[in-house]
Input
Amino acid sequence: MIVLWVLTGVALLASLLADRRKTLQALRRALAMLQSVFPLLLGVLAAVSLLLATVPASTLAEILGGSGPLSFVVALLVGSVALIPAFVAYPLAAVLRDLGAGVGVLAAFVTTLMMVGVTTLPIEISFFGRRVALLRNALAFGGAVVVALVMVLVLV
Amino acid sequence: MSAGPPPGSGPQRPRLRPWVLGGLPALAVLAMWAYGTWVQPFPMGQEAGAGFGRFLLEMLQILPAMFVLVGLFDVWVPKRVIERHLGRSSGPLAILWMVLLAMLQAGPLYAAFPVAAALWRKGTAPRNVFIYLGAFSAAKIPMLTFEVAFLGWQFSLVRTAVTLPVFIALGYLLERLIPPDTHIPCLEARVPASSAGAREA
Output
């Protein structure tokens, strides 16, 4: 995170020294992008936090902490819908593993979590359009299934 | 839900609909949180409020810097450079560039959308845009450090080694599956000033 801001600062400074007008243009574009994404993002984040608060974590952990087909399917679905940052997701995955979650379940959960975003679809559609966004998510979901199955073959 | 104005379509009148669509859930969560905090204990509302706060913090830590970088990229990097290295006729080396670029980043997938949109707008082939998104979700270094720490290097190594080829293949597949007449909002955003700037460079 700090690296990102330092990098941004250095790039901004270099740009400012090279050409003030262009830098101003870049900042104006950044602001415009932020303005167009912010309201949707606000709604998505609120909806996801509401959803996460509604579903009792203990029930979820009970189902996810297995290695059968049901756990696998639930892991794919939860991973697709949830929006959990890596620094929360991986400690959570470690807990699930200790509860008995298999490699396939963990891989399914982690991969869909990172690649499939059902709740962020409105944002994705605003960038790439409905067709591309839906297609990308559907393929990513299929890809996650493949990844998880291959991992079971390799690691179990 | 054809959502909002196209991102990066330059200064324009703020539209009302996205604000209503996004503002209502946000206000609902805030109201539940306030009720739980000041009126009487309401665990679900308080939990939702706390989660919302964490999400907002995460977003504010990444998105503004990301957008400034994308803005600078838009203004400074000439289109023909991107087209030559990452465009339709680019070779497998482009895949390496996309993966390396993605690995150096951090944050949730929605933070990668503006970057992907900027790359696409500059002439990157669709397959490479999708490979970028795949690599972003599979192999960004900050995420890998957490994965290794909590699930072990074996899990992390195998998952990355399996995921990257799958998502690279999906990038090629996706490019073929998109009909040429598809409406893609981020490509239709007209920003005359910055493209003029890029041509000078």
In short: DSSP finds ten helices and no strands in chain B. The mean pLDDT of chain B is 85. The longest helix of chain B spans residues 43-76.
